[in-house]
Queue: 2 jobs
Job 1
Amino acid sequence: MSSLSSATTSPGGRVVRVAAGQGFWGDWLEAPRRQVEGGDVDYLMLDYLAEVTMSILQKQKERDPKMGYARDFVGAIESVLPAIAKRGVRVIANAGGVNPPACAAAIREVARKHGVSDAVRIGVVTGDDLLPRLDELIAAGHPLANMETGEALSTVRDRVLSANAYIGSVPIIEALAKGANVVVTGRSTDTALTMAPLRHEFGWKSDDWNRLAAGIIAGHIIECGAQCSGGNCLYDWETIPDLANVGYPIVEGHEDGSFVIYKHPNTGGRISVPSVTEQCVYEMGDPRSYITPDVIADFTSIHLEQAGDDRVRVFGITGRPPTDKLKVSIAYRAGFKAVGTLVYAWPDAYQKARLADKVLRERIAALGLTLDTILTEFVGVSATHGRLAGPANDPPEVQLRVGVRGTDKASVERFTREIAPLVLNGPPTVTGFAGGRPKVEEIVAYWPALIDKSVVTTTVEVLT
Amino acid sequence: MKVRLLDIAHARSGDKGDTANVGVIARKPEWYPVLERYLTLDAVREHFRGVIAGDVERYELPNLGALNFLLHGALDGGGTLSLKTDAQGKVYSTALLRMVIDVPDDEAREARLPGAKKWPSYTRSHRE
């Protein structure tokens, strides 16, 4: 089923508009509603999952089997319900986390509460969660080796919290074809959330590598929300207007694979060749090989041109067939960490902070704490750029920031008790300890791996 | 002529595991060849020596007027393992733009590169 009715025709041919409403879990709560109310759009795309989000969700699900998805999504859906129910806007989100069915149930409840149950058809994509199958997969000869270190997963198997295959556009398209107007997935790739509706609407074939790659790059450009429309933009940042009212990006997709990035009128921010270029290079590896489950996109084929105020046209993109593997995001328990901070004031703030660090380290050594790493930073001097920052010229204040990491929880806990005493028994003019003792955090580390595509099967269900 | 990257380029950085990437973009298309020629792999390696633990890779994107650098071992393990303030490499962008590169005078004039100013202290080591 295609939804020709939801897209519009322009002098340049039919277009499909996909609006980005969340760039990560924790992004601006106002953005989804502003994207559907600021002008006509066909799809609202919400990206909630970062690399370690799945493990946080897995912990929540262990405590309560009805949890394990991005809770913010429920509020987002509530804020855009009129657009879904009355104006035919469709929503695609990877908010399902490690529990897409529970996420769907929560959305259903919100629709019922507002009396629009009939108008909300939820498509649920599952099959990315490999945790229940992990031992079976390892036994069948899938080592799930760490892509960075080459180590076999068996070395940390007993500490694994979550394991999810990154899945592509196919199941999302299946849900749309079955009539879903809210599609909830687990660990879909961020870019598939944008490429899928374009592919669905234009009927791009599964081997139309250039168009599929264009859809992926459209997704890459808007997957971080306002980061392509003036947010975090270094180029002439001081001239970017009205960030308080920043417009999130929208893809205006064309059948030939070209597209325009724009934002709603009367919003702040800026969409320009420099702002879009900055997002193009964000988190980039080898630009010729941006690998996704659907296609390998070539970032050296991207052409950008300014096509009016706050409009950038993107064209010329090429792609090639994908590999026969899927990336797997695995999270495992990797010890504990804590970070303590104190602020030292002028004069000689840096020297005082350095002395405090020395004292702290002597005490840690005297206590015999078992720590793998102690990292000291001097915020205001060298925390972000190290020696490249040049010499400290007696700054008005310096924050001493000491982090520790280790597998012995008791040692990390003991470290957190050594910060506050420095206020009275260390160097002078120290403040900024009102937050209390540092918190001990369990480290949930990321283990990227590959698996044969053939062993991952996705399932699509549309709730009616 | 000495040219500070910050004056001829902009940049954005991010992370992938323990690797930070910095995309460096010419502020004007006609300045890209200067970056391509003089912002070399060796120069960037030298710039980040002692700041990152691993090697550097360099990729060219002439279509975007950009170079992409991968800085390995830049994030104290990266992601949730990292104890760094900048665990996700968000501000390596301007750490790279601190670089001062040498461009032959005639090329600098032809490309109308800004500034023959002196940039003395952007890369000098701390006196501890």
Job 2
Amino acid sequence: MPTSAAFTDSNNALLKDRLARISAELRGLVLSTADEYQAQVYSKVNSVLTLGMAMTPLKPVSGQGPAIVGDVSDNYTILNNDSQDIANELLRIEDAAASLFNLSATSQNQLRQQIREFIFLLNPNLWDEEFLNANQLSAYTASLDYNAGLATLPVLDESVAVPTYMAGTNSVGSLDPSSSFDYLSDGRTDTALIWNGTSLELIFTFSTPTIINRLEMSLDNYDGMEIDSFITSPDGNTVQDVLVDLGVQSIELDGTSSKFSGDVIIDFPPRHVKLAKIVINDLVGAELIAIRGITISARRYSDTAQLTSDAISQPSGSVLFSTTQTVFDPYVSITHQISYDNTSFSAINPGQTITLSSSPFYYRAILERNVSAFSNSQGPLVQSPLDPVASPYYTLTNTTSVPLGTGIIQRTLQLSDVSGPIVLRETPLPNTLVIQEGAVVLSIANGDYTFTDNTIVINGGGTGIVVSYQTSSLGTAAVADLKEYYTPLLYGYKFENQ
Amino acid sequence: MSITTFTPPFTNGEEASASKFMESLQALQNQGAGVLSLLETDFNELLVEFDRRQKSINSRRTLAWRVNSSMQALKFVVSDFSDIDQANTTGTVRADSAAVSLKERAVPAEAVIKTNKFSSSIGTIQSLDAAQSILTVTTDGTAPTGQFDIELVTPLTLNQFFIEIVPSPSTPTIVVQVSGDGLTYSPATQVAVNGYNVTVWLPSIETRFIRIQITPTHPDVLNGNTFTFGITHFSAQATEYYLRSDFISKTLQFSPKSEYIVLNATKDSRILYYLSVYPDGDTPTPFVEVHSGEQIAIGQAFSGDITTSTGAPNLITTIPEDVYRSTLVVEENGARIKLADGLLPSDSRAAYLQHEYVTLVPSSPGYNLELLNASGSYTAPRTFSVSYVYGPSLVNVQLKVRLSTADSASTPVFHGASLDEV
């Protein structure tokens, strides 16, 4: 962008102020002829132009003779006027710098987005919606996050939580002397946490258990880093693994993050967190891990949303429908539909090959939160495969929860007609699980039941089973508190010619 | 430079001195001169730095046009001259706005802006500079439509103007209308946008009022709620066009990966496309007219069922040397067998395989398609469904675009094209 007249304008504040000042003086002139007026105007304007960016000459004070008032006041007026002009010029330059900074930033943003849209361009064989913009959607109530390339339930609000950061003992390397962990949360772009080493175990703690469901990371270097572990705990006892919840083994941190926006945005199931640990490894041997900032937040969402595509003309014929999505079953769901008239929709499933009967066609996604999944009676158990309605292997007759203080509750589940596995959604604290059939306490040692991966299998089944245990009140047990923070994550959908 | 502390040169009861007084005033004045010099230097450095960085961004924008999506075999880019046969191209290439039009006969017009008023469909407007050339609109996140109403000093017969806008993420929708009386507006015939460069082609009418409506698709910061608008440069001209012009690309090369490619280009009845496509090393073929969306055969497909024999139970078949490896599919009873491309039976690591794979073993000519597992024992006969595409490994292609018009005041515009894999 060439510098336009607005930026190189020599009519700077100094010049403008001085011209304004002489124009006021000229208006006050009382002369006899037009020639005299013209001469005065030329003289005054020339004096300003000749002065340029210099200071106005002082009026000399003679060393001899009596002092006169003008000796002092005229010189002070000259200096005072120049000072005001300098201040105005300073403001003008600041104004211009702000505009230029803004123009430069918008150019960079535009370029980044242009590249992203080139990479995910459509072609005759592929319809690919990556939510980088809303250009391919005809209507939507879902919240679209163009930076992450993500559709969610409508965001009600977002509250940012600021933890305290430190390095864990398993880190390899050291903090750069010029850096600080405080830089991660100072909100500035010119500071960065710089870790000289191959592995950083970043531990962050909140003063009280805090609900979070999103982590955004601004990188300072993009040299093949990877998050290999991301675990959280509400109380120091129960541990929840974010990567397991997202169904991934690792998360790459580089320029391709968030569909080439370069910003790392991790949305995950909401949870109470007092303590968390992220392990970042440098995979390319640069021995440098640099992060400008981390924003941790909790987003609240509405219950339902939908989005409908524009008319899709290509591809046609037999197409494979696929999605990139994360659904936290049974709390939230995404229903996919297709229509040929944008009125009557029928359900389709990811992975399904569809023979399109006409063109164009329309796609619709319905994002929903399953409110009943958050009821207290359903909370503790995964009642697969009919979850959260009921399990075919038992009947849940009663659930009680008794707070024991210090973040621990006592769960008691009464089950009848047990004929199969009982899957707990929450993890019992060590040595607190007790299972009774009537008044008889069952024993693992005697082979009465097994307990593996939160799954209880009672040999031979039973009736009148009572399962009791202690668990963290902020772990899975607190799922009802997290209801408004749950959303399905739809990162994109594709229709591709087979 | 630093501001020094000023110490009054006088003490109470001391005799007044004109020279001391002047000296103190001179010190103040010198400080002021130093500050002014610093401001001038810093402002110049600011402009130079901005210009330097903007050029850097522009160079990356040029590269950005060459980013291929995963299914694109080749792009014909008109945002720079690298791929253009300039000797034989007779059209006007506007690299800044990535557009090619009929050859222009420009008649310069002194279009001087008298007033430029800005309004927004929603939100509150804040000016970012004293000249009010850059404005920010804050909304609840909904994209506003910013409207610039420009009035020229004198009416002119224009049919082309160029503006530079404050860029917003993604490509904003830009609607331009012109009017001679400020009451009846006629829409622009074409608008081309590349970053902050906008070229507008107008109907050839007397123009005094220009209305530019910009609707961004994103806020300034992704997920923000502010939208910046601004016109930082404006120039206009009256133009006549030749009735016919050609755009011809250089001969470009690509490595095909599919049986067909498809030409993807702007559909306009005033634009005809011709392609010369031939394997590298062959004699160039004449240009043949193709339409946007038309498939062009590059390779040949093979598909068939093959049964192994007891004599060589691991050998499925022999395939041509010029096979496109990414297209090779081997299935047995509907189940796809994994391809271990590059793994040879002689490799000692083959003994550690957990599954049975298909490998390509070089033979003369082409490759033997062989089974490979850890035990080295294979039963026969087994029937496999084999499919692949083969063809030239490197293809030369040249594009010719013929633009024509029956009205010398209007032009079709070519924005570039691509060859997509099928």
